[in-house]
Write a structure and sequence with these properties.
The chain has 463 residues and is of the alpha/beta class. The chain contains 17 helices and 14 strands. It is 43% helix and 13% strand. The structure holds uridine-5'-diphosphate-xylopyranose (2 copies).
Length: 463
């Protein structure tokens, strides 16, 4: 039996360790966090995050070989392997503000490990970190006067929210990086052994430490780049009557390009993409590569442009004023099947409409509590309405901002009847039946598609 401890019971630590516990009944896994409310939620019937399939797994393994605890020090002392998945947000002060990763929680955690350890341990970087962070960690961990040696292993997570359980159960690959010294190899093998309990060996890739750290940032940068690329094309489609879904399909059939991550949208969100690209940009600048930094920065700028463009399109379609108009925003989560609203484009649109003094009603099946918290002071100006029909009642416009499948199958005839005319609908996720909505009477604007309007406007009419 190995004593595995995970520090950080968030979106990454919780689901990752639940699946690990399920697949490794012979290991004891403890997830610790300094946040008492969060741990209490993990111990209750109302888990702190919504993730399909998570409840069932936690119910099956909790109290057996999976434990949630706030006793960080004690469990560190007992651990053989420590996964660290504390948050690494964008630094908001001093050098690198707005770009670099804020590593204060990481360093604090490393020092906490040293303080409480009485035996050597393997420390696994699970959080996304700048390349070469492990070097600093090794210095902190191994500058102890207890004669203890700590191996640092990089094992970045690639799970996406909404499919985290599936991604962990059957990953495309597991990446483990370590030093090529005998001790590093032994530590790497110990981590590989854990995953080999349920992941085929050929899907477990091993690399040197720095490649593993950098691969995580690179994977997220490439994924985000595809979205910004198709979103850039969506702007051109709207000017030319090309249809971005058709273009994406046509290029995705090229096996060199592939069909995934080509859904044009109001923008990408989530806790990772923007943070990781900005971090990559900062690293490139730090290492004297301004051209490379500039290249990747454009991925984020294009995303900001796409969000701003969506709001501008709403404004110009609605006669250049939304002040005082009720607007129903369907979706607050940054993507479907999650309650997470971090960096959600829905909230960016919400804030921009509030600046225009619109009367915003926000509807989402799972993310309204997080949306309220994220909006801070501005939340007081927003109506939070879980029922999309009630949200649309009396509205001048609807904007679909999260691709929850239920938004595609609402009774839009009834919704149309309850709205102020002319009624507008803006599809920021391209999930609706646009022609059907137009036939009902809506003026329809969708990302990367010709607009369907019932009266003359500055935007082109369909033939
Ligand atoms: C986060 C980042 O978003 C991701 O990029 C990184 O790879 C891992 O950390 P996530 O699990 O989504 O992933 O973060 P979050 O939900 O904020 O969870 C982090 C947890 O760490 C929090 O519950 C926080 O209380 C805990 N924490 C933080 C500690 O237990 N100790 C600390 O010193 C700091
Ligand atoms: C991402 C990575 O996919 C994952 O591997 C990594 O570990 C963490 O970051 P996540 O942010 O949870 O995961 O979700 P993801 O599915 O990647 O979506 C990110 C954003 O891009 C969402 O806002 C989503 O709606 C948007 N998106 C995704 C698009 O706009 N179009 C697409 O085609 C795909």
């Amino acid at each position: 039996m190995t004593n595995i401890v995970c520090i950080g019971a968030g979106y990454v630590g919780g689901p990752t360790m639940a699946v690990m516990a399920q697949n490794c009944p012979h290991h004891r896994i403890v997830v610790v966090d300094i946040n008492e409310a969060r741990i209490a939620a993990w111990q209750s019937d109302h888990l702190p995050i919504y993730e399909p399939g998570l409840d069932e797994i936690v119910r099956a393994v909790r109290g057996k070989n999976l434990v949630f605890s706030t006793e960080v020090d004690r469990h560190i002392a007992e651990a053989d392997i420590i996964f660290v998945s504390v948050n690494t947000p964008t630094k908001m002060f001093g050098q690198g503000a707005g770009r670099a990763a804020d590593l204060q929680y990481w360093e604090k955690t490393a020092r906490q490990i040293v303080r409480n350890a009485t035996t050597p341990k393997i420390v696994v970087e699970k959080s996304t970190l700048p390349v070469r962070t492990a070097e600093a960690m090794e210095h902190i961990l191994n500058s102890n006067d207890k004669g203890l040696y700590f191996d640092v292993v990089s094992n970045p997570e690639f799970l996406a929210e909404g499919t985290a359980i599936r991604d962990m159960q059957a990953p495309d690959r597991v990446l483990v990086g370590a030093h090529t010294t005998p001790s590093g190899r032994k530590a790497l093998e110990a981590v590989v052994e854990i995953y080999a309990n349920w992941v085929p060996r050929e899907r477990i890739i091993t690399t040197n430490l720095w490649s593993s750290e950098l691969s995580k940032l690179t994977a997220n940068a490439f994924l985000a780049q595809r979205i910004s690329s198709i979103n850039a094309i969506s702007a051109l489609c709207e000017q030319t009557e090309a249809d971005v879904t058709e273009v994406a399909h046509a290029i995705g059939m090229d096996s060199r390009i592939g069909p995934k991550f080509l859904r044009a949208s109001v923008g990408f969100g989530g806790s990772c993409f923007q943070k990781d690209i900005l971090n990559l940009v900062y690293l490139c600048e730090y290492y004297g590569l301004p051209e490379v930094a500039h290249y990747w920065e454009q991925v984020v700028r294009m995303n900001e442009y796409q969000e701003a463009r969506f709001v501008s399109n709403m404004l110009s379609a609605m006669f250049n004023t939304v002040a005082g108009k009720r607007i129903a925003l369907l979706g607050a989560a940054f993507k479907a099947h999650t309650s997470d609203t971090r960096e959600s484009p829905a909230l960016a649109v919400c804030r921009a409409l509030l600046d225009e003094r619109a009367a915003v009603v926000l509807s989402d099946p799972h993310a309204l509590d997080n949306a309220r918290a994220d909006l801070g002071d501005q939340a007081a100006q927003v109506i939070f309405e879980p029922d999309p029909y009630a949200a649309a009642d009396g509205a001048y416009a609807i904007a679909v901002l999260t691709e929850w499948p239920q938004f595609a199958s609402l009774d839009y005839e009834a919704i149309f009847r309850s709205m102020v005319k002319p009624a507008f609908i803006f599809d920021g996720r391209d999930i609706l039946d646009h022609q059907g909505l137009f036939d009902i009477g809506f003026n329809v604007y969708a990302i990367g598609k010709p607009s369907l309007v019932h009266f003359n406007s500055s935007t082109p009419r369909p033939s």
